[in-house]
């Protein structure tokens, strides 16, 4: 999607409750009413890292198709404060305008719309009119009280016009994770906005009435532009939907394979990880790529790839987190009380802080397998899809080899409800180093959420991970058959 950024709202944190993991409420759905004009919670900033409980949150869903493309299109502009020299991001355009909402729906909409401007301008309110500004395409994630997520797809640029002016953001709010597709939609919105806001309405109305395509399918929109005539816009969804929300290029540009592997290892054990960079796009895209390496598992702790200045206290959070901080705030981060943090400088490609055991978390043989696979043929890849598959594949294979046998160790009742048999599952691994790693991994929230879904499902999900498990099992059978024939 060009440069994709993923910023999540403060507080996708987890706390233990009665032996079960539960996520706390996030900033836009619980604390917004206590926010001041800057977007920072009133009172002590340290309170930002307290952990109220809330229902289980859901990872970004994979959509089969048929849903609506989006909920809102917004334009967020910088407006000068009356009694200060800085600016406040404000929604200056909204489509559609919602009417006749029930009281609960109206309150939810107000909370949502109040949160969005802060994440369209996460780098603070100190701006000055500019004559040049590089456009940025990025996104953020808002988590509701019930754990469902909405994604904000953004394009930040200078509006058309003479002389110095302030950047503004086009923001599309959707429940669907498909960054490449929405980048193209933002291209069309930007093109129309240069003509007139009135030209945006029929395009977005047509998009709102169209059904979101299934993987590999295309939807075509008919749109009229003054002086250009009628245009037909084709929006095609990638066939392989598990990677449609990520681009690994920035991660590869910033870090060596060995460093990526150590970051992956830290994430697998749900540790605290902070990424540093100055550019919003590089910073956030790298974090989103790191989270994507965990497929088929989902990071469900604090996840803020672009931390707004007012929420920097998040790095003091005692529970696991994966966050991104702009380099200008490095000193504030270093002065914060933190324990066992992996601090990654994306600009220099170095670790400023580490626990020290990152190289020893994963089984040595499987580490070598990942590094060998990553290094083979990397320079021959031409498209972002090829890069994504090349980078993701070895990490998926890692999970296939370590936990791909999970379905055989779910014992089912007559009702169909399953119960995971942890001890025999771990003992089934013949490699001692693999078994040692898996005994730690099964205690994580990553694995717990995954296995809870598997216990509820009567059959393994027919997805990409299951496909790779079946391929691996077939390869083992063929290898065993060849060995028998040699004997």
TrEMBL record:
InterPro entries: cDENN_dom, dDENN_dom, DENN_C, DENN_domain_containing_2, Tripartite_DENN, uDENN_dom. It comes from the Eukaryota. Residues 71-461 form the UDENN domain. The keyword Nucleus does not apply. Residues 44-57 have a biased composition (Basic and acidic residues). Residues 1-60 are annotated as: Disordered. GO terms for molecular function: guanyl-nucleotide exchange factor activity. The keyword Nuclease does not apply. Keywords: Guanine-nucleotide releasing factor. Coiled coil: none annotated. PROSITE patterns: DENN (PS50211). One of its GO terms (cellular component) is nucleoplasm. Gene3D superfamilies: 3.30.450.200, 3.40.50.11500. PANTHER family: DENN DOMAIN-CONTAINING PROTEIN 2, DENN DOMAIN-CONTAINING PROTEIN 2D. This is DENN domain containing 2D.
